[in-house]
Amino acid sequence: MIEIIVTEEGIPLIFNAEDWLKLREEHRIVGSLVGCLAQTPYQDHFKGLPLALLPEEATLLRENNVARLINHASLLKSPSSDVKAEYDKYCEKICDEQIECLMEERKRQITGNLDNIVAGKQRKLMGLKTKKKKGKSKGKCDEQISTPTETTVTIDRNKVLEEELSKVKPPPKSAICVQIFTAHPWLKSEELSDVKWNFPSSPTELLRYNVFRHFWQKGYFLTSGMKYGGDFLVYPGDPFQFHAYFVVICIDKNAPLRPVDLAALGRLGTAARKSIVLAYEGNNKEINYQTLKWSPIK
């Protein structure tokens, strides 16, 4: 079961990358990435883990027994000396592994380029000089090799290889980048505790959740519609591949809806090239939907 960590502010978060992928591919739960990328922490154009879920998404996953809403007591306090020691040990291990990989890659490059290295040493011992002269094409140079002073020079390839490999030095550990954790690797299971989840707790929240669940059960992907002034954006497929079809706005059936509001919503749908869907609760507690669309005046 997927573990959703709920913050003190009530925000459901996913820290595990495999859980994020599973939610998106198998359960059509998109959420919103809110973390920074480990290699580029000083930009905000591309986000990384953790994944923040809408309360509707967390409630849906909980009701379908896909996820468990929890918190960790240890996340609310400073790490102990044992955890710090374990972290330092892990960083040391990661640095050693990366240095070993870098050394192996450098040795592979030298071995693959051994013919050119040997040829260069032969030219040097034979007194050959490689000069550059401008060719016919602008900006290009052709190689011109002078006449050798000796007929042939024999070089021990194995000795050259040993000399070149001996020059390979490991990089300093300060230059090695250690991946920042997105999921705490040393949390103890006995510190887990279920969160008391109260969403939906009001008629407005209940309407939002019922609308979200309705479209989700129809096979759509949903995200927050805040950037269009709505509650949800509804996609026919993954938002990475499709544009949204609908901007869904949940309204109170007893709240007044002025003509100017309808005009504004109609203009929004035309400008965004999306259908505006008004969702409200009917007299029999069922959810009714009304689509707004501009119609030309004839």
Automatic annotation (TrEMBL):
It comes from the Eukaryota. Residues 6-71 form the TSEN34 N-terminal domain. The keyword Lyase applies. Residues 207-289 form the tRNA intron endonuclease catalytic domain. GO terms for biological process: tRNA-type intron splice site recognition and cleavage. The active site is at Y235, H243, K274. InterPro entries: tRNA_endonuc-like_dom_sf (IPR011856), tRNA_intron_Endo_cat-like_sf (IPR036167), tRNA_intron_Endonuc_cat-like (IPR006677), tRNA_splic (IPR006676), TSEN34 (IPR016690), TSEN34_N (IPR059049). GO terms for molecular function: nucleic acid binding; tRNA-intron lyase activity. Its EC number is 4.6.1.16. Transmembrane segments: none annotated. One of its GO terms (cellular component) is tRNA-intron endonuclease complex. Keywords: Lyase, tRNA processing. Pfam families: tRNA_int_endo (PF01974), TSEN34_N (PF26577). Belongs to the tRNA-intron endonuclease family. PANTHER family: TRNA-SPLICING ENDONUCLEASE SUBUNIT SEN34 (PTHR13070:SF0), TRNA-SPLICING ENDONUCLEASE SUBUNIT SEN34-RELATED (PTHR13070). Constitutes one of the two catalytic subunit of the tRNA-splicing endonuclease complex, a complex responsible for identification and cleavage of the splice sites in pre-tRNA. It cleaves pre-tRNA at the 5'- and 3'-splice sites to release the intron. The products are an intron and two tRNA half-molecules bearing 2',3'-cyclic phosphate and 5'-OH termini. There are no conserved sequences at the splice sites, but the intron is invariably located at the same site in the gene, placing the splice sites an invariant distance from the constant structural features of the tRNA body. This is tRNA-splicing endonuclease subunit Sen34. The lineage of its organism: Eukaryota, Metazoa, Ecdysozoa, Arthropoda, Hexapoda.
